Structures are given as C-alpha cells and as structure tokens.
Amino acid sequence: MSSESAAIGTSTDPSATAAATGDQPVGAARRRGPFREGERVQLTDERGRMNTISLESGGAFHTHRGFLNHDDIIGKVDGSVVVNNVGQQYQTLRPLLSDFVLSMPRGAAVVYPKDAGQIVTMADIFPGARVVEAGVGSGALSISLLRAVGDQGYLHSFERREEFAEIARGNVETIFGGPHPAWKISLGDFQEQVVRTEEPGSIDRVVLDMLAPWECLDAVATVLAPGGVWINYVATVTQLSRTAEAIRADGRFTEPDAWESLVRGWHLEGLAVRPDHRMVAHTGFLLVTRRLAAGVTGISVKRRPSKTDFNEDDVNAWTPGAVGERLVSDKKLRRAARDAIAGTNVKDDPEITN
Questions:
Q1: By the 8 A CB rule, do 214 and 226 touch?
Q2: pLDDT tens-digit profile of 278-319?
Q3: Residues in CB range of 89: below 8 A, 6 or more apart
Q4: Pairing mode, strands 89-93 and 81-83
Q5: Alpha-carbon span 143 to 337, nearest angstrom
Q6: Quick one: which of 224, 220, 182, 168 has its CA closest to 201?
C-alpha cells in the first residue's frame, strides 16, 4: 500500500448515520440514557480511586476488596451508586472527553485537553467548518475537532505513520460509537497530499501539530480560504521562533500571535484550600495567523527581531529523542493499535483504499 495515497476511515453518509441513531448527532446516544453493554464507565470507590471499565454482559470488575458484576451497572442511569459483593460502594459515571483522552491507547503524546480547548476556540472551529489537520498522533485533537465541526462539517486528517493512523481511528470510533461521517484520514506528507486532495481556497481552518510547520507555508496558503485561520502546535521555543519568522517573511498571512496555557488545580478540603502541589505546566506553544486575500501583502510590524540562520543541526535538535522524549517502539505501536481497535463496537473495519 502506498503511504502517499492511502486513505483510512473515509466518511460515511451523514443521513444514514443519523437515521441509525434516531436523528441524533453521532456519539450523542452514548452520552445519554442508561448504561449499555459495550460502554465505558468510570468507577470511583469510597477512597476516591478511579477505574474505567468497558461493560460486558456477565463480566466482573475485580479488586483486592471483592468484585462488582457488570450486570449490576448495565441498565443503571448515569451517576448511580452500586455495591460489590462485600459492600464496597462505587460511583458510576460516563467518562468525560478529558478523562477519555488521558486514558485512551496511545502511540504518541496526546494534545492535552487544555490545549485542545484553546485550539477549538482560538482557531474558531465552528459547526460545518472545513478543516484539515496534521499530524494525527493518537487522535486526541481529532476528537475535539470532530465535535466542533459536527456531523455536517469536514475534517481531513493527515498522518505519516500507518500505526498512528490506526490508533487514532480506533480511539475516534470508540468515543463516537463508530465511524464519524465528517472524518477522513489519509497517509502521507501533509504538504504534498493536501494540495492534491483539496481545492485551492476551499479550507476554513488548518491545524498543524508537527516538527516543521514552516515547510507547509505554500500548501497552507494554497488551500486556505481568505480570512481562514492557521493554528500551529509546537513544543519548543526554537520551533515557535522559526515558524513565526517564516510566516512574517512569506507575506501572505497576518502577523502571528503566540501563547501557552498553564493549568493549576486547587486542593479543596475544609479550610485547607490551596493550590495543588502538582500542575500541568508547559505542554506546547500555540501560534495562530490568518490568510490574507490573494495578491495582498501583509503589513509588516515596525520592529522585527533580528533574523537568525537555521541549519540541519537545528532541525535534528528538535526530534523527540533529542528533546528527551522516549521513543516509541514499533511493537508498542502495534499493540496500542490493537487495543484502540478492540475498544470499538464496529464489527467491520472501514475499507482502506489506495
């Protein structure tokens, strides 16, 4: 199979999907009503310990303090309290998107909920929008984007590694209960594939989570509609700087804005109200810009930072291994892909086309 042209999980007919779910948006049925077999349920015990299980008729959840039959949960409404065979109580809730993202099978680091929320809002991802993204990783951001564009929107995701694409497909189908009608995922390099598959000026939003987004300037400028938003997620200051300078030098985009978000939880117990000792600090930088009309050159800022030369050594210094991230083995990727696919309720995989 050619990695440059393969497509995984092509979109389905929205009307057919809506009919199958009683005219509800895809995935909505899994967020309402009593617990059903195959659903994921979050169990919290009396000490606040949390576990997530997939409900199976006749199954059981075992701990050192007894077992809880899945049949005692199936049919209960969200937020019920159930008791195991020795009287241990469990609070049952459907996992939120943030819970699912942090516990789902993964082959690459996920985009944290705090960043996904910023991307959806600051890139103005709206229902019905036409969006392209790269790379997909484990599908965490894809799920947020699909929720934002809705069943009538369009999300075309590009991923270079087939194992990552399979993991993402499994995770997306698990949370939505099947293929999403707005989603298409393709294998290959974004800058090469997007101009072959998307019409010039037809895309509303571009979301890039990759090593060198500045290499995609021409591709983004080609497919992005005038006024469209391009948002980048990068890990290091040097990547952020080079992307911003490339956008400024190109002239087809507005002056870029950049930021990061930090989340600090709080400990709440009686009078002991204080910040948590741990927090989700730096995960990545976000940089956003907008496409100008054809033939228009962006207004230059009055003061510009001095230009810096970049070479191949700089790019090599930004690889996951160089910045201290643990490299993921092919064996682990294949196992994560199997785990992700096993969590779906779809018996037949979508056709993979060349």
A1: no
A2: 988 899 999 999 999 988 887 776 665 555 666 777 767 777
A3: 45, 46, 81, 82, 83
A4: antiparallel
A5: 16
A6: 224
Number of Cβ atoms within 10 Å of the Cβ of 209? 23
pLDDT of residue 225: 98
Closest CA to 190 of 218, 150, 152, 153: 218
Q: What is the DSSP letter of 120?
A: H
Lowest mean pLDDT among 111-115, 268-272, 350-354: 350-354
Q: State how far the Cα of 194 lies from the Cα of 288, in Å rounded to an integer.
A: 19
Write down all domains in the chain, each with its CATH number in brackets.
Answer: 36-93 (3.10.330.20), 99-339 (3.40.50.150)
Residue 347 CA: distances (Å) to CA of 18, 84, 157, 166, 196: 19, 32, 23, 15, 32
- Those residues with Cβ within 8 angstroms of residue 96's Cβ, 6 or more apart along the chain or in another chain: none
Give dist(CA 13, CA 182) in Å, integer.
Answer: 9
Cβ partners under 8 Å of residue 206, min gap 6: 131, 132, 133, 220, 223, 224, 228, 229, 230, 231
Q: Which residues contact 41 (CB under 8 A, 6 or more apart)?
A: 35, 52, 53, 54, 55, 73, 92, 93, 94, 95
Q: Is the dihedral of CA 151, 157, 162, 165 positive or negative?
A: negative
